Amino acid sequence: MPNAENALKVMLFGGGGGGEDRERLDAIIHDVLEEGMGKDEREELFGSGLEGTPSEGRSSYDDFLATLESPSAADTVKGMMHFVKCFYEGTVGEVEGRMEMLRRKKIAPWQFEGEENNFAVNKEAAKAAKMLHAYLNLTVEAITNHPSFADQPPEVLGSVLEMFIMRKCHPRTWELSYDPDKDSAMKDRLDSLQWMNFEHLDIKCLSEATLRRGSSSGGGELEEEDGGGRPSIESNASTGSTKSISPPEDLWTVPLEALRQVDVVKSPVEKLEKIMLASSSITVALRAALEPGEMPGADDFLPALILAIVHANPPRFSSNLDYVQNFAQERQMMSEAGYVLTHMFSAVQFLQMLDASSLSISKEDYEAGIKTCKEEAERKRVEALAKLERNKSWGGATRGKEGGEEREVISDAIDPEMEKIIKLLEEKGCVPKKFRPVSARKVREMRQKGELTENLFQEYLANGGESGSGERKNGSMDKIPRPTYRFLAAEPSNIRVSDIPDLLAEYKGLVKTVEGLLNDRRVMEKEKRRLEMEKERTMLEKRREHEQEDSCE
Amino acid sequence: MRLKVVLLGEGRVGKTSILFRYIRNEFQEKQQSTLQASYMDKTVEVGGTKASLSVWDTAGQERFHALGPIYYRDADGALLVYDITDGDSFVKVKKWTKELRKIVGPDISICIAGNKIDLERNRQVNEKEVLEYAKSVGASHFYTSAKQNLGLEECFKELAGKMIKRKKEKFGGGVKGIGGMGGKKGKLVVIDDEGGGEKKKKGGGCC
Q: What is the pTM of this model?
């Protein structure tokens, strides 16, 4: 699979690079892809058509969408729309009733009776997951036998269907897994641990210190391991020097990027795929650093994963893990994916419990490290706040410090039409709750005073919809909720009839905003022109006066 | 039937070697995971019953000790590995056994492996003590050498046999476990298996 090989290379090294290390790494990649990895595994890493190499993967999903568009699949689409609608409306009974009906008609085998997702974080999520999985299971059975989908293999269909439905249901399923407090606690923790490196967890093969020690003191450590401490591909591989290369920076960035991507993709199957990529790229990095033929076990893998999580500082990581736990299907959690996900939870728990005694570091150094990182985080927070302050003073707005008082002022004058739109968007999970627009009265007052209103809006957005900066909890910019424009990347083919109210609401909201801004600008420009003309007029008058004076003389 | 086995043992006793050696020898053609040497899936057949083993390697360093339950709380079996040339590693095995019995209960099948038997001359761990201990906690004991590929096959087979027997006793005929992720005890769901092959009730070869 040359495509896969190239994809992995590009992923690992980007474009450039060269030299001996590069050759060695090439060999590893080759080994990993061609010999070390069975077909199943390659599919796991690169996906089986669906999650596959970028080009293959897209086409599978696109094929599916294309099929949905065809008139022959109209019944399927209708069924899906109905399900998604019921899912959002929470009319579980209706969905269950429909599935019960299908079951009686023996349209598809029913296997999910009474089986709850025991691992889900909360009951509601378990219920939603049960509903989704039952529906997916049923539907995949149904569409496998559907003539329109005949050209797509059932296992691919299962995955694309899941991706499709899970993307549609994402706002709701995410809401059930999202725990901002847990995430912000995790982020604070990771922020304060940024000083950690390979040595603190004794990841010997990845630390620079070992390289130095290894070349000076020979194979002292190795002899101890001869009895089988480390497995070898060739039985005589563990003789010789301990010379090994540390992973190039590039190699270590792949798992970090993969971990951050977990938050970006939407469906559980895609998130799991990123988690697996993180795992396999950590293994690649470890293998590159180990002796040729040595295999990294859990003793190497777990500490490396912990460090990768610290270095990556992935956004909303806890919620993402919970989301996967809640909504990934049982068959996906079996085998290696379940194992890797368990390692993720375990790494997170380790990081949460961590103190100086868990690391190879003195108590003083540990506390100093934490202190420095906390100060750094605090500095960034203050900087962000200062930036906001600056914006505020440019706007020249005088605002009350009490958040509550401010909100009252705002809420009494909201355009009822806008209120309705926002409410609809909130219900659909498109905008965070409490996302209230700035009151018209406030804007009017400011305009009457001749103040600029753009900053008011920006500040309001930056405050996550709350007025007044005093309420900001964590100060980090990436936690700011913003309205999500769900249809920004949508193709006409993705949009269902039931999306129209949302789409319209989004459109109206945007038009309102744009109109408001344009109006502001018009007012401003008019005012500016007026001032200029006035200035000109005074100048002209002055000149005339001068001329008159001159002529008098 | 799906069975989950955790591999526990202090760092450097050779857990990963055992796993890797077992994969290499047994599974050369169909190996699933060379990329990740810490996990493997393998189908075994004991006494006419086929079972799919998922073997989970765990990190053995002391600093990760508290994370143990995350890995073993829904396991069907555990392979506890110590190094016969390292007395401390056997002390750790005792600690794990206690924990497993306390947290997972009597349902988990335990097998103890004294690894590095090729280094018999450096033996530190008393054989009599080990065998008596194993007997007292209802565990089987094997000597293994990942280096010379001794005892591994027998060890896994024995463990698989014990787990299969235990599951059959608990659930009767066709049994399917919800393998995978951490859950509490008793998460196994009995479903009639369509394959049918697993319904045969036959005594597995175990002690």
A: 0.62
